[in-house]
Design a protein that fits this description.
Layout (H helix, E strand, L loop, with lengths): L1 H16 L3 E3 H7 L5 H13 L4 E4 L2 E3 L5 H8 L4 E2 L1 H7 L10 E6 L4 E3 L4 E6 L8 E3 L5 E3 L1 H13 L19 H8 L5 H12 L3
Parallel strand pairs: 5-7
Antiparallel strand pairs: 1-3, 2-3, 4-5, 6-7, 8-9
Helix pairs in contact: 5-6
């Protein structure tokens, strides 16, 4: 009994420091257990008790976990962008808190659960223009979030908002927007992005 109380205290303490999202490796450290069989046995007991939930392979959550931290822990090379970042920067209306959109350099993927997390692949040379928030999660700058959105729009991605009328382009920094746009060599895309930007002024 004493051991389980210690486990619980250590688990909740670490959870506070990592946004309520824990990897299998972190749980191994919390429970001081290197045996995978024993470790999963302990984890399953906490799942049965309703303290832990398994979100995906080797990723677990506590109650009231941070959705953005979850997306970053699943894909450490990702950053928040598209509709999620646009809503954070108040460039569009409220985005659903149960859907997180991310950009990654690796394979595109969809994770279904609470929340749903979508990862869209971009070439390494286009993965820039983001900053960490207070918890270390990378968030696209307003200008990069718009450019990412326009880029995927031209590649056929559907958005629930209208990219021409629903994005508040007037909030963007012109110098930053066009400095980011210089990284793209596709003349069709650059012309399209410039037109979207200037039609709002």
């Amino acid at each position: 009994m004493k051991k389980w109380l210690e486990y619980s205290e250590n688990l909740l303490k670490l959870g506070e420091n990592v946004g309520g999202v824990l990897s299998l490796m972190e749980l191994s450290s919390v429970f001081n257990e290197s045996s995978k069989i024993s470790l999963h046995g302990i984890i399953n007991k906490f799942i049965e008790a309703g303290i832990l939930k398994r979100y995906s392979r080797e990723i677990y959550t506590l109650a009231n976990f941070d959705y953005l931290v979850l997306s970053a822990k699943i894909r450490q090379d990702s950053y928040i962008s598209l509709g999620s970042a646009l809503a954070m920067h108040r460039l569009i209306g409220t985005e659903s808190p149960f859907q997180i959109f991310c950009i990654t350099q690796t394979k595109a993927a969809e994770y279904k659960g609470a929340p749903n997390i979508s990862y869209y692949k971009l070439a390494k040379g286009f993965c820039f223009g983001f900053k960490p928030n207070e918890k270390g999660v990378l968030i696209a700058e307003p200008e990069k979030a718009v450019i990412d959105t326009l880029y995927f729009y031209l590649r056929g991605k559907y958005f629930y908002f209208n990219i021409f009328s629903d994005i508040n382009y007037s909030l963007l920094d012109k110098d930053i927007f066009f400095a980011h746009l210089k990284h793209y060599n596709n003349p069709k895309f650059k012309t399209f992005a410039e037109r979207c930007f200037y039609e709002k002024f």
